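User: I'm putting together notes for a lab meeting next week and I want to include a structural view of one of the chains we've been expressing. I don't have a solved structure, so I'd like a prediction I can at least talk through. The sequence is below, exactly as it appears in our construct file.
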Amino acid sequence: MSREASLIGRKEVLTGKAKFGIFGDGKELPQIIMAKVFKHGDFRSGYYRDQTFMMALNELSVEEFFAQLYAHTDVQAEPASAGRSMNGHFATRSLDENGQWKNLMKQYNSSADISPTGSQMPRLVGLAYASKLYRQVKELSKFKEFSSNGNEVTFATIGNAS
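Assistant: Thanks for the context. Below is the predicted structure for the 162-residue chain, given as structure tokens.
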């Protein structure tokens, strides 16, 4: 499904129906494998071609993929950024509709993608360091909604130019 969405999305851009598009075709296999071992509570620090991974986790539907391509401003249609980011830039929400923290250990977590090449690497280090702190600083152990005693894993994806 991800490959087909990429091909259709590219046609939408080339025919002028969408203004700009970046797609993840050709990256499917490693992303499917990564999704198989990714658990609730883990974090992703990725780049803009991770659509297959997000689809494999059911964190991105085809409808949301195209809502992102067309910069739909409704958060229900495009939950990653409500049309504020380029397509292919994924994120999961850490706050609920009332502005309260969600239990991040009960969901898949994706830090918000940004465009600069290699920018996922500092986020990766920061997220991994946060897990380390949850292992070392005893006072943090009471915040169970943010860490499972530092046992969550941070995954990163990287492209050729990073």
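A couple of points you could mention at the meeting. DSSP finds five helices and three strands in the chain. The helical segments are 2-14, 28-37, 51-56, 62-69, 120-136.

User: Perfect, that's what I needed.
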